[in-house]
Amino acid sequence: MKIKVLKTTKAASCKQGISTRDYLEGETYEIFNELAEVFITQGWGVEEKEIKIIEKAIEKAPENKMFTAELDNKAIEVIEETKEEVVEEKDEEVTKNKIFTKKKKR
Known about the structure:
The chain is an alpha+beta fold. The chain has helices at 33-42, 48-60, 62-105; strands at 2-5, 9-12, 20-23, 28-30, 45-47. The longest helix has 44 residues, at 62-105.
């Protein structure tokens, strides 16, 4: 089964499990069915034909492209907001630690 790898993973290179190999993120491999099923269920990869079906659906319907772009923009906003929250939390933590340290020294 052809699998596009979503997460770099070290796994068996043959059914017998005699040797292993690195399956690299973004690459497509012909993998024996049992291992391919593991990749799919664990979220390490997707079947190549699934990707082609999704791409064709997006190509056929322009609104799908807009929807995908909206989702991408929303994801970027959420990531940026999360980064800001983490930075604010770290700043607060550092400030609290400085105050605590100063109080201890007195």
